[in-house]
């Protein structure tokens, strides 16, 4: 029994430890399984958390999360899993908030990009404006440099003039000294020549008188030469105009004579026809009386009377036609006479009617009124306004001449209506000046031609009539 018990106890002892080891093994197995399941859950959570929201978390957040998961892995899974899941839910909410902020930041970034692009465009425009301003500044600098150069040149000229003026002053002082010396010598000579002074004075007076007379004669001679030249020019112009007018007049006379001859012939024919008509009327009246005084003698006299009546009617018609022709010819003659009168157009006038004087200067162009009219055939020139008005369409020729003196220029312009045609001008520092010009113009009916004084100039006229305005019709069109 001992052996049995011992055996049983030994077996029991052997079996006991085996049972404890199996129990502890099963417990360790269950713990390992739980830990593995927790590890898988944590791994999946970690992978899901870090993989899905990797873009939205910063490195520090990721590191903290991994450390938290690793710590949670070492803890007991059943106790902390709910807390981890709650924290994961909180982290998800934070991630959503961070994503929303991220979207807002992206929108702000887009807005900033747009504003940056607009600022770049504005900057480019400002750069372009700056380049333009630089160009304008360079141009202004160039102009300023040119003006400075001109100023320097003017300064140099001024210095030169000052130097010349100073030299002239010195020369003047020297001349004054020489003059004083000469005066002293002259006084000495006067004292020495007191005896001959009387004769010398008389000779001087005589010489002065002769000089004065010579000077006056020279002036008169110059004026006469100027007047002679002016008169020669005007005479030549008038001769040309007269020759042209004579030619036109001869042509018109020839045409008028031909028209008169035709009119006389037509009047003679008309008178002859009138006489024949009167004769026929007389014969017709006598025939009527004979017819009334006696009885009808037969058909021959009746036929004769019918023929005479027919002839009388034809003659009356011819007479009416002749009258109409005569009236038409009279109207044509009247029109030809009018044309003949219109063709005779010419005028010539000088600025002043009497005396002498200047005209101008004025601040603007002023129409000159030539008051002394020597010729105005056709009355197309108005001496009260100074304007020539064309009565017919044709070509006209105009000539104007001006005279001036002194240091103010003389200038006058020919105008057709408001159109500037030709100008004549002359200027010199002293003495008299004269100039002339001419133009042929095609004028319509009613066109106006005048001579206007140029602004800030002056002209002169006197009893010799230097300043003139002339014109005439060359031919009609």
Automatic annotation (TrEMBL):
One of its GO terms (cellular component) is extracellular region. It is found in: Secreted. Residues 1-37, 143-162, 172-233 are annotated as: Disordered. Residues 340-477 form the C1q domain. Its main location: secreted. Gene3D superfamilies: 2.60.120.40. It comes from the Eukaryota. Residues 20-37 have a biased composition (Low complexity). Residues 180-221 have a biased composition (Basic and acidic residues). The keyword Secreted applies. Keywords: Secreted, Signal. InterPro entries: C1q_dom, Cerebellin_Synaptic_Org, Tumour_necrosis_fac-like_dom. Pfam families: C1q (PF00386). This is C1q domain-containing protein. It comes from Oreochromis aureus.
């Amino acid at each position: 029994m001992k052996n049995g018990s011992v055996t049983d106890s030994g077996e029991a002892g052997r079996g006991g430890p085996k049972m404890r080891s199996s129990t502890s093994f099963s417990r360790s197995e269950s713990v390992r399984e739980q830990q593995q399941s927790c590890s898988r859950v944590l791994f999946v959570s970690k992978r899901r958390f870090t993989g899905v929201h990797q873009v939205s978390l910063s490195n520090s957040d990721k590191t903290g999360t991994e450390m938290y998961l690793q710590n949670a892995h070492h803890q007991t899974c059943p106790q902390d899993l709910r807390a981890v899941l709650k924290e994961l839910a909180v982290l998800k909410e934070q991630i959503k908030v961070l994503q929303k902020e991220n979207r807002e930041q992206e929108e702000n970034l887009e807005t900033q990009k747009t504003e940056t692009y607009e600022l770049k465009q504005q900057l480019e425009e400002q750069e372009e404006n700056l380049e333009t301003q630089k160009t304008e500044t360079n141009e202004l600098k160039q102009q300023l440099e040119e003006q400075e150069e001109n100023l320097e040149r003017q300064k140099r000229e001024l210095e030169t003039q000052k130097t010349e003026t100073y030299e002239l002053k010195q020369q003047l002082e020297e001349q004054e000294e020489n003059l004083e010396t000469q005066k002293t010598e002259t006084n000495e000579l006067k004292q020495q020549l007191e005896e001959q002074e009387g004769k010398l004075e008389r000779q001087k007076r005589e010489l002065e008188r002769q000089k004065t007379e010579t000077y006056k004669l020279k002036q008169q001679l110059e004026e006469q030469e100027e007047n002679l030249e002016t008169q020669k020019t005007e005479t030549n112009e008038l001769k040309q105009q007269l020759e042209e007018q004579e030619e036109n007049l001869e042509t018109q006379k020839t045409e008028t004579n031909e028209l008169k001859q035709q009119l006389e012939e037509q009047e003679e024919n008309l008178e002859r026809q009138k006489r024949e008509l009167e004769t026929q009327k007389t014969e017709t009246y006598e025939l009527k009386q004979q017819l009334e005084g006696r009885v009808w003698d037969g058909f021959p006299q009746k036929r004769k009377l019918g023929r005479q009546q027919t002839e009388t009617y034809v003659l009356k018609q011819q007479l009416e036609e002749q009258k109409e022709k005569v009236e038409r010819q009279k109207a044509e003659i009247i029109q030809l006479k009018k044309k003949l009168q219109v063709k005779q157009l010419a005028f010539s006038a000088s600025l002043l009617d009497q005396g002498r004087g200047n005209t101008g200067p004025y601040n603007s162009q002023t129409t000159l009124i030539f008051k002394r009219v020597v010729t105005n055939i056709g009355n197309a020139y108005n001496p009260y306004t100074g304007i020539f008005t064309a009565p017919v369409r044709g070509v006209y020729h105009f000539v104007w001449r001006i005279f001036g003196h002194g240091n103010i220029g003389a200038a006058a312009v020919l105008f057709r209506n408001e159109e500037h045609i030709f100008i004549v001008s002359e200027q010199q520092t002293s003495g008299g000046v004269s100039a002339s010009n001419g133009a042929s113009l095609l004028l319509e009916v009613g066109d106006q031609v005048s001579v206007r004084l140029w602004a800030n100039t002056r002209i002169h006229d006197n009893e010799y009539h230097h300043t003139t305005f002339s014109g005439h019709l060359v031919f009609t069109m």
